[in-house]
Structure formats: structure tokens, C-alpha cells
Specification:
Layout lengths: L6 E4 L9 H15 L7 H14 L6 H12 L6 H18 L7 H10 L3 E5 L4 H9 L2 H4 L4 H4 L2 E3 L12 H9 L7 E5 L2 H10 L2 E5 L8 H7 L2 E3 L2 H12 L2
Parallel strand pairs: 1-2, 1-4, 2-3, 4-5, 5-6
Helix pairs in contact: 1-4, 3-4, 5-12, 10-11
Length: 242
């Protein structure tokens, strides 16, 4: 898995950090606030968001498109921009105080960094949110600071298109003068695995329960699959002998 690789690329939400459920809760609170008491299930909320994000991959601001969708679907008496502002106001506390690494993820980052790999992050989360993880989230800062582990940190604002478009991965390869065979990507979702395949890069599927609805398709596309980061650590020990 690591043979011939020099750049390891990680997605963030659902891959490194346990955050997909948090975003589902944020969106539940947003919908409750704007939707006249509407209470869709967590599964419905996630399906709606994933579908809109996939359709909006070429948009300048996919999350604004999602908030406009919420406005229309729940007949909100406010603008998409208003909903976007509300969404991030609700999210800020969760980002700083609730979200944490998945168990063992921080150890994997330290281990790969110690072995000399270039670590890159490719996330569709906004730079503002990434900055909260960098400066205010003590859960993460105490285990593995993103700015110390990663040589490259790309957020939503750093690309025109989002996954499954491979733009962010192609940019990393171009800037690092790397071939696809020299890279390895860790993702949790189908859309992320598709982006990796579209870039011609081997993909590792990290299990996240919020992607269970896409499990069969993920398994069909991923080159490697792990249930947790303890399994990844074992693979590192076996292959790299460190």
C-alpha cells in the first residue's frame, strides 16, 4: 500500500475527524429554525445535503446552494445567505468544542510524518472552519496540530470545483511534481473515492457509519479498506517496520 508512495492525502470530515454526525445535527437545528417546525430524520438530512453538494460541485459556493435549497424546500422566510450565516453561527461551537479526531487518527498522522511522507489535506470545508480546528479546537490541538502534521492544507476556497471533480488532487500532484502512483488518498465517502479514481490515485476507504448507504459502491471502487485507524497502524507496522 505504501510502496513507492511519497505523498499521503487525507480528506477531513468523516475521514480524519468524527464530524458528519455533527453537521447533521447542525442542519437539523437550522431546519428547525427556518422550517416552521419541520423535523426530517438524520438520514433524510444527510441525503439532501449530499445530493445538493454533488449537483453543486461546479458552483462558486456549494454550501450557499445548499442553503438556497433549504430555503425552497422548507419555505423559509429568509434568504439563502441568511441561512448560510445561521448555519455557521450554530456550527462554530461544535467545531471548537465537540469535534475530535477519530480514535487513532492522530497516531497515524504522527507515524506517517515520522516516516518522511508528505502529508496533504484536501477538504471541502471552508477555510474559516479549518482555522477553528487550527486555533480553537483543543481536542485536536492537544493530539496532532494540523499545521504541524500537514505540509499542504487545502480548503474549499482553494479550488473552483469540489469532489468528485479531482481538481484538488491534480493541483497537489502538479505542485509537488508527483505522479499518481506516488500518491495515496484516504477518504470515507463515495464522492471522495470517486474523486481519487478520477485523479488516477489509489484510494483507501476509511469506514464511517454515515456512508453506510453507499457502502457497496465504495467497496467496489476503493483499493484498500479499513474499519478503523488501529488497522491502519497495524498496516504501517507490517509494511514500513517502524
Amino acid at each position: 500500500m505504501f510502496a513507492g508512495k511519497r505523498i499521503i492525502i487525507f480528506d477531513l470530515d468523516g475521514t480524519l475527524v468524527d464530524s458528519v454526525g455533527v453537521w447533521n445535527e447542525v442542519d437539523r437545528l437550522v431546519i428547525k429554525a427556518i422550517g416552521g417546525g419541520a423535523e426530517p430524520s438524520e438520514t433524510e438530512i444527510q441525503k439532501q445535503r449530499d445530493a445538493v453538494m454533488r449537483l453543486s460541485s461546479k458552483a462558486d459556493h456549494p454550501y450557499l446552494e445548499y442553503c438556497k435549497y433549504l430555503r425552497g424546500t422548507y419555505r423559509a422566510d429568509c434568504t439563502g445567505e441568511d441561512i448560510l450565516k445561521l448555519r455557521y453561527e450554530i456550527a462554530d461551537d461544535y467545531l471548537a468544542n465537540t469535534i475530535d479526531y477519530k480514535p487513532g487518527a492522530d497516531k497515524v498522522l504522527h507515524r506517517l510524518k515520522a516516516h518522511g511522507f508528505v502529508l496533504a489535506m484536501a477538504t471541502t470545508t471552508r477555510r474559516k472552519n479549518l482555522d477553528i480546528y487550527l486555533t480553537a479546537n483543543r481536542n485536536m490541538m492537544g493530539k496532532a496540530r494540523l499545521d504541524e502534521c500537514f505540509s499542504i492544507l487545502y480548503a474549499r476556497e482553494d479550488t473552483k470545483e469540489i469532489k468528485p471533480n479531482p481538481e484538488v488532487y491534480l493541483r497537489i500532484m502538479r505542485e509537488q511534481n508527483a505522479a499518481p502512483a506516488e500518491c495515496l488518498i484516504f477518504e470515507d465517502s463515495l464522492i471522495g473515492i470517486e474523486a481519487a479514481r478520477n485523479a488516477g490515485i489509489e484510494a483507501v476507504a476509511m469506514y464511517d457509519k454515515y456512508s453506510d448507504g453507499e457502502r457497496e459502491a465504495i467497496q467496489a471502487l476503493a483499493d484498500y479498506q479499513f474499519a478503523n485507524y488501529d488497522e491502519v497502524l497495524a498496516a504501517i507496522e507490517a509494511e514500513l517496520l517502524i
